[in-house]
Every structure is written in structure tokens, then in C-alpha cells.
Amino acid sequence: MIPELGIIEGFFGPPWSWEERRTVVAALQPHGYRFYLYAPKADAFLRRRWQEPHPDAELAEIATFAAFCRQAGVRFGVGLTPFELHLEPGGKLRHLIRAKLETLAPIGIDDLAILFDDMRGDIPDLAQRHAAIVDVAAGQGVASRILCCPSYYSDDPVLDRAFGQRPHLYLEDLGRLLDPTIEIMWTGEEVCSREISIGHLAKVAEQIGRRPFLWDNYPVNDGPRMSQHLHLRGVTGRPARIGPHIAAHGVNPALQPWLSLPPAVTLSMSYRAGDAYSYGAAWDEAAWSLFGDELARRLRADLLTFHDRGLDRIGPNRKAELRDIYSAFDHPAAREVIAWLAGAYDVSDEMVQTQ
User: Fold this and answer.
1) Residue 244: is the preceding peptide bond cis (ω within 30°)?
2) Could you tell me which of 105, 114, 58 has the C-alpha nearest to residue 86?
3) Which residues pair with 147 in a beta bridge?
4) Which fold has domain 5-285?
5) Cα(133)–Cα(94) distance, integer angstroms
6) Cβ-count burial of 263 within 10 angstroms (0-12 exposed, 13-18 middle, 19+ buried)?
7) Dist CA 68 CA 243 (whole Å)
8) What is the pLDDT of residue 89?
9) How many CA atoms lie within 13 A of 82 on its CB side?
10) Is the pTM here over 0.85, yes or no?
11) Burial class for 98, CB neighbours closer than 10 Å (0-12, 13-18, 19+)
């Protein structure tokens, strides 16, 4: 069973342009990608300034992109982070959520995700507060599918260190309180999971009372450490056998839209090939089709440097050499490599803390 595939634009750092978003939709739709969730951390009007309406020009851009997605047969969604609303008195919920969703409704939204990541969560009745917010949002009727990202969206203890100890039975309570039609997002055993296993998914499904909606943090490369790397390799650790155990598979892409495409295409290839999947051969096929023979060969030759070694371990002479090599290619993927070498995609701690 091949699950519904899609893109979750949910990374920190410099956002994509609207043209880059359209490029990604057009490139991945033929490979079975059927939803696009617009939730960039850089859009303050969906996060820290969420109670304010988007400026008219920005709202028009979102609406135009939503129409583009629907024309391509791709569901368009918005990820709203009602930042720290769960700390407010309950009486404010309906008014604040309704006011925000009224500004977004004219866009035409297929999927609405209420996201509780990146916020303090060490509150005993956290699940009850989150469920109440989602219930109000779902009741506005602006989208045909509602999703929820918990504050603790992984078993990874890094979340407890960053946002406080998770309440006892938080997931179980959230799953019990949310309507069973509402999808619950999950990244796996880690925030950036190396492997997604059937055993783990079965455990989570039992906790939340439904199959998890997989938010896959590969090939995302945001954050001060990860932005030093280009996550180019074909997907591994996501065997096709997990398909029946998830509600959908959403990919959080890299800061570089074109360089995100080969890993995303290999995910589709993995589901279709099953046990016959070979991640190296799949990457070659995907990169050749997207970039052409010469650029694909060059990227393949530099995979170890870009993916594993990282920008902060490439000396100035080698950077200059690589800039010269990739300047010879008239392709946006090559230009992304050059910009990365120049530090254009660096994500600072300040960005992560303020977006």
C-alpha cells in the first residue's frame, strides 16, 4: 500500500519563493505527491504574530499558490501555530481562532493543521487544552481535513529538555479527546528519525487511537548544525512495508528546493519498488531525470562532501574550487550549491528562537 505523499514546508530559516514552491509541486506531482502544507517557520503571521492578519499582498500570494496546487490535483493546506494560546484562559479560544480562520478562509484551504510544536508543554492538562483549541478550529469548517501536531511529536527526549517534561499520558489523552477523524502528526522515535519501523508505528497508533500522520524530517536541513549539510541521499530507513501503518507521509524538505527533489522522488520510488528498492540506484535515476547527466554525475561525486562532511569542514581553497565547478552549470540546482557554499542558507540560533 502506497500512502498519500506530500510536502510539509515546515523548516526554520530563509523561506522558499512562490516560484520555487510551484516548481516543487510541478516536479513531485507526477511522483504521487498529492498535498502541500504551507507552514514555513519564517511566516510570522502563522506563528508568533498569528493573531494578526496577513498583509493583503501576502494573502494574495498564498491564494494564488493554493489555486495552482488545486489545478495540479494537489491538496493545499495551511499550518497554523497558535503560539502559546494554550496558556491563555479558555474563554479566549473561540474568538481568537475564529478571527484568524476568517482571514484565511477565502484562500480555499483543503487541509488545516494546528501545530503545537516549539512551545512550552509541561502543563498537567496540556492534552485537554490542545484538544479544546483543535476542536474550536475544526468547528469553523474552513477545511475538509484537520490535522494536529502535538507539542511532543516524537519520543525524542530532546523535546522534554527544550520545552519541559511531557505530561504523563499526554499522547493517550490527546488521542482520546480529539475526534477520530482528526489526524495526529508524528516524526518517529527521534525528531529527525533515522528509521521508521512498523513496531514503533504500531505502538504510537495504540497510544493515539489512530494511524499516525508521518511528518518526516528528511531531507530537512534547518538549524545551525544541519544547515551546514546538504541532505542529498536517497531515502533509507522508510521501508515500503510501513505504508499500511501510517495515515499519510509528509516530507519536510531542505532549505534548497531543487536539491530537495531527488530525496523526495526516491521516497516515491521506495514505496513502488518495495523490497527491490536500492537507494543509490534510485538516487541516480531521480537526479539524472531532474538535473541531466553531467550535473547529476557531479553531485554524485560530491555527495560525501556535501552530505556528510559539511560546509564548516570545507576549506576556502576547496570552496573556491567547488564554486568554479558548479558555476559551469546553468541550472538552479547548481546555483543552490553555490549559494550554500557562500553561506546563504546558514540558519542561526537566533532564527530558530525568533521564527
Assistant:
1) no
2) 114
3) 113, 183
4) TIM Barrel (3.20.20)
5) 8
6) buried
7) 28
8) 66
9) 27
10) yes
11) middle
User: Residue 1's pLDDT is what?
Assistant: 86
**In Å, what is the CA distance from 230 to each residue of 57, 58, 262, 311?**
32, 29, 12, 9
In whole angstroms, give the CA distance from residue 83 to residue 100.
12
SS3 87: helix
- Residue 132: in which H helix or E strand, if any? helix 126-138
The sign of the torsion formed by the CA atoms of 105, 106, 110, 116 equals negative
Strand partners, 188: 154
Q: Where along the chain do its domains lie?
A: 5-285
Which residues, given as ranges, of the chain have pLDDT below 50?
none
The phi, psi pair for 201, rounded to 5°, reads -65, -35
Judge contact between 107 and 77, C-beta under 8 A.
no
Task: Collect all residues with Cβ–Cβ distance below 8 Å to 51 and sequence separation of at least 6.
Answer: 96, 99, 100
Distance in angstroms (rounded) separating the CA atoms of residues 97 and 92: 9
C-alpha dist (Å) from residue 118 to 10, 52, 215, 269, 339: 12, 19, 15, 32, 28
pLDDT confidence of residue 5: 98
487511537: which residue's cell? 209
208 neighbors 180 (Cβ within 8 angstroms) = no
